[in-house]
Amino acid sequence: MPTPRSETLDHTLIALADPTRRAILRRLARGEARITDLAEPFAISFNSVSKHIKLLERAALIKRRKVGREYILQFKPKPLDEVQAWIAKQQAFWAASLKAIDDMLREEDEGKVRK
Amino acid sequence: MTETLATAKVSHRFSAAPERVYDAWLDPSKLRIWMKAALMEMGLSGDIRRIEVDARVGGTFFFSDIRDAGEAKHWGTYRVLDRPRKIEFTWIVDESQNDEPSVVTITIEPDGTGSIVTIAHEKIWASYVERTEMGWSRMLRAIDAMLQAR
User: Fold this and answer.
1) In chain A, at which end, N or C, are there fewer CB atoms within 10 A of the end residue's CB?
2) Which residue in chain A has the smallest CA separation from B138?
3) Domain-by-domain residue ranges, chain B?
């Protein structure tokens, strides 16, 4: 019973189901890194890191860009809908807060003018 | 420098001076007015139960309002109180976040006679990833158990 979404979900599942890939994601969540930077702390070969990176890329959890001769990897949180939802919810709340503060201060000003 | 992931960021220009915007965050009677309006804007009742503010660095705050699911509690600790420039506090909505709370930073910059306010709400990413990992491994175990039961 494959649905269009199930493949994406499978890719995300597979990407997150391995401790090295989760560690790579955690590292990239702190900031961009070169592929060569990643191989070292995990004590695994460049080839092995490359395989993990391919699976993470397939899940769209990371993106690479070329800078000179190096590939720079960036963590892309989009597949993690839960996080996206969190951000959207917080932004809506803080935007509503700022608007409400603005309204309150304007009302205070109008009150002063009337007095 | 790379931008921190999982940051909710909003900004707004006020015609009011920085001091007045700053005080709106720490004066309980003002907090009650705008927070009620903000909650109602979000489609909630805006029925505020508690507002407690201990406005000093290391001091805590507690806000709660009544929602369909019951009393929604928010609390945290002030980390920076630099009138009228900056307020930073931890923001916790659930006991499980007490150890690794999210952090809200409010930056107030003068702009003519008004001010520009930016709020950055950062979720501590590592803890989210940890929780996600736990979620996924639980789910995988459940799938495994289901397949074995067949």
Assistant:
1) N
2) A17
3) 7-124
Q: Do A102 and B12 touch (CB under 8 A)?
A: yes
Report the pLDDT value the prediction gives residue A38, as an integer from 0 to 100: 83
B42 and A102 within 8 Å at the Cβ level: the answer is no
- Looking at domain B7-124, its CATH superfamily turns out to be START domain (3.30.530.20)
Q: Which residues contact A99 (CB under 8 A, 6 or more apart)?
A: B12, B38, B41
Q: How far apart are CA B122 and CA A29, in angstroms?
A: 13
Partnered with residue B53 across adjacent β-strands are B61
Class of domain A4-75: mainly alpha
ipTM score for this prediction? 0.76
| Tens-place pLDDT, residues A59-107 | 899 999 998 888 899 998 778 765 567 678 888 999 999 999 999 999 9
Residues across chain B: 150
Q: Which pLDDT does position B5 carry in this prediction?
A: 41
pTM of the predicted model over 0.90: no
Nearest C-alpha neighbor of B100 from the set B129, B70, B127, B81: B127
CB pair distance less than 8 Å for B35 and A91: no
Interchain contact, B24 vs A32, CB within 8 Å: no
> For the packed helices A4-16 and A46-58, what is the interaxial angle rounded to 10 degrees?
150
Question: Which contiguous run of DSSP H or E holds residue B120?
Answer: strand B114-122
Q: Which residues of A touch B119 (CB under 8 A)?
A: 94, 97-98
Give the per-residue pLDDT at B46. Answer: 93
* Contact across the interface for B14 and A90, Cβ inside 8 Å: no
Per the CB < 8 A criterion, the answer to whether B1 and B107 are in contact is no
Strand (E) or helix (H) holding A10: helix A4-16
Per-residue pLDDT tens for B25-84?
999 999 999 999 999 998 999 999 999 999 999 999 999 999 998 999 999 999 999 999
